[in-house]
Amino acid sequence: MKAKPVKVKAAGQKKEKQIKQKTKPAKKRKIEFTKMVASGNDFIVYDNRAGAFKDGSDLAVRLCKRTEGIGADGLIFIERSKKADFKMRIFNPDGSEAEMCGNGIRCAAFYKGKKNSTVVTLAGILKAELKEEAVKIKMTPPKNLQLNMNLDINGKIYQVNFVNTGVPHAVYFVEDLDGVNVKLLGRLVRYYRDFQPEGTNVDFVKIEELDSLKIRTYERGVEDETMACGTGSVAAALIYHQKFLQSEGNFVIEIHPPSGEMLKIYFNYQNNEYTNIWMEGKARIVYKGECYV
Fold first, then answer.
1. Number of other residues whose CB lies within 10 A of the CB of residue 101
2. Contact 261, 40 (CB under 8 A)
3. Could you confirm whether 107 is annotated as catalytic?
4. Is 101 a catalytic residue?
5. Which pLDDT band holds residue 3 (cuts at 50, 70, 90)?
């Protein structure tokens, strides 16, 4: 009688199968998001009121990539708050969490759709007003305003100005705005020793006419030039007033970023103090979608 062949498992075969099972990739989660734009700054807005994510740093790095992700200047979390109508958190493409973002807050307020709302940020509680497609927000009082700081960069002196408008900004006035290498010079100023350890955003500003400025911004956390910057626009307006006007009263400064969508900065200056600082500009929803993370 012919013997039946006996199947013998090779040593380690079972173990190898177990290893393969362990290394099976985790199932990805599908999330819904809204893509928004405010004056040229684009954001991914995620409603995190259910607390699905405790932190958005890793998510921002993945989703904000222009070539591999959705692409954006930042990731916005909308969260619950007991102190205001809602809380907004903003994560930069490098994963860092910013104290605030002017255009990001305007997107968040537009997303919520309430005519008058209050928003909790790391920089404080801000007010927002909706006017059709425009959103107007009340900014935090400026801090640490300094004029005419001389920076020695590669043997050349650059006279810049500084102010914190919720996040730090170095403001440099130029005559040839188009000729500025924003990414190169912006990065050198952003990491300059006087602004460490946090670093600073850098705004290159040209005076077009009375109360009208053109601006290009190198954003910290994005590490590149962006099409607009809300806090940078406020910084440019206040520094412009402090250097060239200095008179008391109510002011409206028009800011023209590369996006072509003008921002208006309103403020009062009295007794060496800036108050009632508001920023106004357009915001809109571009599209809604789903992605796997």
1. 30
2. yes
3. no
4. yes
5. low
Q: What is the DSSP string of 112-137?
A: HT-SEEEEEETTEEEEEEEETTEEEE
CATH numbers and ranges of domains, the chain? 30-135+287-292 (3.10.310.10), 143-281 (3.10.310.10)
pTM of the model: 0.88
List of residues 6+ apart from 206 with CB closer than 8 A: 173, 174, 175, 176, 177, 213, 214, 215
Q: Under a CB-based contact definition with an 8 Å cutoff, are residues 163 and 143 in contact?
A: yes
Our CA dihedral for 28, 29, 31, 37, rounded to 10 degrees, sits at: -40
Q: What share of the chain is helix, strand, coil (3-state, %, to 5)?
A: 20, 45, 35
Quick: pLDDT tens for 52-81: 999 999 999 999 999 999 999 999 999 999
User: Per the structure block, which two tokens stand in for 62?
Assistant: 């993945």
- Convert 31-54 to b/e letters by CB count within 10 Å (16 or more is b): bebbbbbbbbbbbbbbbbeeeebe
Q: Which residues share a beta bridge with 42?
A: 37
Q: pLDDT tens across 163-196, in order?
A: 999 999 999 999 999 999 999 999 999 999 999 9
